[in-house]
């Protein structure tokens, strides 16, 4: 319990450090909010007329949950860049020389990124409500949908932290966000893709989250006959847990072997 208490206390100290940086230079946070809103408006008003909604439903109710999911993925690059920047500036080495919990620096980074992601998500929710999106199911199902979004985001944060510790040029890996994001069920039904590509899209963790929240919000979705599509809510929980179980220990282990 003492170790856990110090891990939480040290982690919160690092979180405050990152938040203070954002307060002093809010450019990244403001740009993230504005970019997310711009993409949502662009798809809603520029491309919306060309999109066919499954079952003839409201296109914006179909679009917005997909944008929620894409937003949870697109923060990986920023996380990687922040981790890499601390390493290159020697800040990480200084933290490692201090008497603090093994996971505190990485835990603080993940909590700060989650606060940032929650802010951007709230801005996107406000944008969605303004353009006509509505959750049509119960309050409990709506809350579960948002919980699944934040869960997959936290898993992606730890993937980004690990990649930031391993990859020396984060900008190269940042280019993978768009292929991974678009190789999903966000804008196109996997059933319209070649069979092998559609299978990959179905088993994309992002696809499970987007399908699950569309179901929980009561918004239109693509449907599908595959097992993973039929159990979207279950897989929207399983995928993030698996990602966390893999990349959390890998990140902590890599952090303490940076100089080896």
Automatic annotation (TrEMBL):
The keyword Membrane applies. One of its GO terms (molecular function) is ABC-type transporter activity. GO terms for cellular component: ATP-binding cassette (ABC) transporter complex. Pfam families: ABC2_membrane. Keywords: Antibiotic resistance, Cell membrane, Membrane, Transmembrane, Transmembrane helix, Transport. It is found in: Cell membrane; Membrane. The keyword Phosphoprotein does not apply. It is a multi-pass membrane protein. Residues 27-258 form the ABC transmembrane type-2 domain. Its main location: membrane. One of its GO terms (biological process) is response to antibiotic. The chain crosses the membrane at residues 29-50, 62-83, 104-131, 143-166, 178-197, 232-252. InterPro entries: ABC2_TM, ABC2_TM_bact-type, ABC_2_transport, Nod_factor_ABC_transporter. PROSITE patterns: ABC_TM2 (PS51012). Belongs to the ABC-2 integral membrane protein family. This is Transport permease protein.
């Amino acid at each position: 319990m003492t170790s856990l208490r110090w891990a939480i206390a040290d982690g919160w100290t690092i979180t405050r450090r990152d938040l203070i940086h954002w307060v002093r230079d809010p450019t990244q946070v403001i740009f993230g909010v504005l970019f997310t809103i711009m993409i949502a408006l662009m798809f809603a008003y520029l491309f919306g007329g060309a999109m066919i909604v499954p079952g003839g439903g409201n296109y914006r109710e179909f679009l917005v949950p997909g944008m929620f999911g894409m937003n949870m993925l697109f923060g990986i690059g920023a996380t990687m860049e922040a981790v890499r920047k601390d390493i290159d500036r020697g800040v990480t080495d200084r933290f490692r020389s201090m008497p603090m919990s093994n996971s505190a620096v990485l835990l603080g980074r993940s909590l700060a990124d989650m606060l940032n992601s929650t802010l951007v998500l709230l801005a996107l929710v406000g944008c969605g409500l303004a353009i006509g999106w509505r959750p049509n199911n119960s309050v409990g199902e709506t809350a579960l949908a948002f919980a699944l979004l934040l869960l997959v985001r936290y898993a992606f944060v730890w993937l980004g932290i690990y990649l930031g510790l391993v990859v020396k040029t984060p900008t190269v890996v940042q280019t993978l966000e768009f292929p991974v994001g678009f190789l999903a069920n966000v804008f196109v039904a996997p059933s319209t893709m070649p069979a092998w590509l559609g299978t990959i899209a179905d088993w994309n963790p992002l696809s499970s989250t987007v399908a699950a929240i569309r179901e929980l919000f009561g918004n239109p979705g693509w449907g599908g006959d595959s097992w993973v599509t039929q159990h979207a809510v279950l897989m929207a929980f399983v995928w993030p847990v698996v990602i966390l179980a893999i990349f959390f220990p890998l990140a902590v282990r890599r952090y303490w072997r940076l100089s080896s």
